[in-house]
Amino acid sequence: MTMHSTAPETATAITIRRLWSSERDLFRSHFDRLDPASRAMRFGAAVHDSFLDIYARSAFAGGNMVFGAFVDGELLGVGEVKLLANSLPIRAEAAFSVVPEWQDKGVGDALFARIIAALQNRGVSSVLLWCRSSNHRMRHLADKHNAELNFTGSEETHGEVRLPWPMPSSIIEEVYGEAICYTNTLWRSNWLKRNVA
Ligand SMILES: CC(C)(COP(=O)(O)OP(=O)(O)OC[C@H]1O[C@@H](n2cnc3c(N)ncnc32)[C@H](O)[C@@H]1OP(=O)(O)O)[C@@H](O)C(=O)NCCC(=O)NCCS
Questions:
Q1: Ligand 1 atom, smallest distance to 1 CA
Q2: Whose C-alpha lies nearest to ligand 1, atom 37?
Q3: Which pLDDT tens digit goes with each residue over 4-52?
Q4: Ligand 1 atom index nearest CA of 132
Q5: Sign of the CA dihedral 3, 120, 89, 67?
Q6: What are the boundaries of each domain within the chain?
Q7: For ligand 1, is residue 23 a contact (CB within 6 Å)?
Q8: Does domain 10-195 have CATH number 2.30.42.10?
Q9: Whose CA is nearest to atom 6 of ligand 1?
Q10: Contact, 129 vs 138, CB < 8 A?
């Protein structure tokens, strides 16, 4: 098994921020950049474009949250959170996808860390993950973030990360991360250069 490590210069360039419902088209276009294998890994089976159109419309509904990973303003990965209805304590489900040319460079790990912090800050008790049993990369990431992994059959693995109460570190992770990303966006759009410099 080949293990790849994250290059620090790549990892530090990744910024994570929430995507909002007004960015639904950007979110939808992310799935067009996934190759068939990644799409199938993400959704558990091959999915048609028309399914993704409908899916993208529902992704921001209710208390669902979507996070995007950016490098130089380009959306390279997405982490999605769905709050599970009628569950007390509150539980959520998360799913991740990264464009093929950026896989194995730390993007999924950065999304995972932000989602955990965001859910911890909202009092969510645990986050569930589903992936194919053959998805060693996702299973490694889940394990790295302390998920309890269970095989639900030969095809699928189910993981659950139990979350502690909000901590100063989780609040800083979320607030600082969003602020950095927002500042970068303003800088790239020249707003800061024109108004501060
Ligand atoms: C799964 C996915 C989201 C992970 O994101 P990513 O950006 O590629 O992952 P990262 O680079 O952050 O981390 C990958 C980790 O897996 C490890 N890894 C890579 N190949 C591996 C393998 N064959 N076996 C075990 N670990 C492996 C890497 O070393 C890295 O671990 P490290 O951070 O401890 O070094 C991404 O690969 C993807 O989009 N895959 C297709 C869609 C999918 O499978 N989604 C998951 C279902 S919800």
A1: 23
A2: 103
A3: 334 444 445 889 999 999 999 999 999 999 999 999 999 999 999 999 9
A4: 47
A5: negative
A6: 10-195
A7: no
A8: no
A9: 108
A10: yes
